[in-house]
Write a structure and sequence with these properties.
- There is one protein chain.
- With about 220 residues, this protein is α+β, with helices and mostly antiparallel strands.
- The protein contains eight helices and nine strands.
- Strands 4-9-5-6-7-8 form a six-stranded antiparallel β-sheet.
- Helix 1 packs across helix 4.
- The chain is globular.
- Homodimer.
- Its main location: cytoplasm.
- Belongs to the DtxR/MntR family.
């Protein structure tokens, strides 16, 4: 049976929220999706029947391997669509999320497999996040937040965490794009804002911004 749009949105939320042990709480899902707790509980009972989660009252949910795969396949559709819009239709990376939110609910597997083929099987989306393969497998990355870097370090901008269009526009205006080399010049003790050097020009980034930027050394 095909998954519903609502189920896919819940699956995607599980994908983003699950911790290293495969666990997530009902409260976390409720806040992330802006859905009331009773509704989340009811949906997770359905997910339990589908063997996507292990549901026990008053305990964190445990996402099963079957549930992890289902969630990854929804994310695959979203990220492939974003990549297609950027690479083949020349959209900016700040303009693709909303469109992908709509197209990710198309159920035709062959449609997304063809998209994958046309793109030559990309490993990452336009925001640097890994694209799950057709079996739901995903590349692990050894990245850290820019906010965790030290003065003097040289890093490469590799990815952004869940971000809205305004933040992506903020980065674009400062020429902070994927694979950009960044040098940490100064970290303010007062508010933890960070002065960085990008292509010979210095920029001051807020703590909120540096926590969303993921880098590799």
């Amino acid at each position: 049976m095909k998954t519903t749009l609502t189920e896919e949105n819940y699956l995607k939320a599980l994908f983003h929220l699950v911790d290293n042990e495969g666990k997530v709480t009902i409260n976390e899902l409720s806040k992330f999706l802006n859905v009331k707790m009773p509704s989340v509980n009811n949906m997770m009972k359905k997910f339990s029947e589908k063997k996507w989660v292990v549901y026990e009252t008053y305990k964190p949910l445990k996402v099963t391997e079957k549930g992890r795969r289902e969630a990854a396949l929804v994310v695959r559709k979203h990220r492939l669509t974003e990549m297609f819009l950027v690479k083949k239709m020349n959209f900016g990376w700040e303009n693709v999320h909303e469109i992908a939110e709509q197209l990710e609910h198309v159920h035709s597997k062959i449609f997304f497999d063809k998209m994958d083929e046309i793109l030559d099987h990309p490993k990452f989306d336009p925001h640097g996040e890994p694209i799950p393969d057709k079996d739901g497998n995903i590349i692990s990355q050894d990245l850290q937040k820019l906010s965790d870097c030290k003065v003097g370090e040289n890093v490469t901008f590799a990815s952004v965490t869940l971000s809205d269009d305004a933040f992506l526009n903020y980065l674009t205006e400062r020429k902070l794009l994927l694979n950009t080399k960044i040098k940490i010049i100064k970290i303010e003790d007062f508010d933890r804002s960070v002065t960085v050097e990008v292509e010979g020009k210095q920029e001051v980034l807020s703590k909120k911004a540096t926590e969303k930027i993921l880098v590799k050394k």
